[in-house]
């Protein structure tokens, strides 16, 4: 895993931190991972700031789960109020889930807005799992196409379509991969067409090997692939998917709810009308709520032939958290803020690129930004070591980001949507200091 703590470094930790890590390993086992060479201990969060037990303040420039900031009062109050009133499942008539669906459906546009439905889960993994279950039922096929470094969840099915989990985590038998539309290493004028051709080729192989294409699923900002934000590249892909008989699933877990700045949903930057949209992490600002929006004809036979029930998906507290989060995004104009702050961050890193040749590319949309670190701008050779050192150097200055991409050399900057000018200044100032040390 990019930027994970290496247990071989245990001896370098101070005694209290070492004891905490050893206790965690003893109680939680080997599958859990910590960030950073010097793991961060946290006790409290407010807005874009985090605090440890010693009162040290950190800038959170990574956490998109709390999309409207840590412990936003409006969300906290809504959850507390509903939890003090009623929390039960969706087999009773309750207004909260209906109000949320009625508010959300128009935002997707296209066929979903015209008559689509919403279905609720607890996590993005569950949402993607449900989306693909419906796609398989609707098409009668099993094939799924993903990008080469995709991440779509950690259930058995979604881990099987998450190539970024590594070679030790096998892909599903009917899963095929295509390269992401890499705007840095590829031809920027042919990204969409090349990807569509790759999808067509893989769909043919699925059919040739005895099945066919049920769905293509992609995160429209290609977060795990290295953060690629060229608008429009998925339009020819969607056409190719439908020509092959498959459904287009837009994974908006990370790129939705105004994060791109340009549009409310990431797929809208590509001019497409998806069959299914999945949502997760930022939907309840930390409360576990997620779901899908789906066109009516895709889910019709699924609903007739089977049933869907989720004990906690769509419960009253989840819907209160989701509605309150949505209200904050809209009332505080956070989509516009994402655009403005994102442009300022990109501009700042482009200025740093003029000083440091190790920065090969700066890209992104809104508050989802990738900074690609290279050993040589001419060859574009990856410098994963520099990326790791920068991430950990920033951590020592109490600024939290991460790294991503198949070459592990892309700084991933993905802060809460409430990021301010002061936050941007802290991020850029600390980055300049760390890069002066790492890239000297």
TrEMBL record:
Annotated signal sequence range: none
Superkingdom field: Bacteria
Keyword tags: Aminotransferase, Pyridoxal phosphate, Transferase
GO MF, one example: pyridoxal phosphate binding
Keyword Transferase: yes
Pfam family, one: Aminotran_3
Cofactor(s) this protein requires: pyridoxal 5'-phosphate
Family listed: Belongs to the class-III pyridoxal-phosphate-dependent aminotransferase family.
Protein name: Aminotransferase class III-fold pyridoxal phosphate-dependent enzyme
Organism: Paracoccus shanxieyensis
Higher taxonomy: Bacteria, Pseudomonadati, Pseudomonadota, Alphaproteobacteria, Rhodobacterales
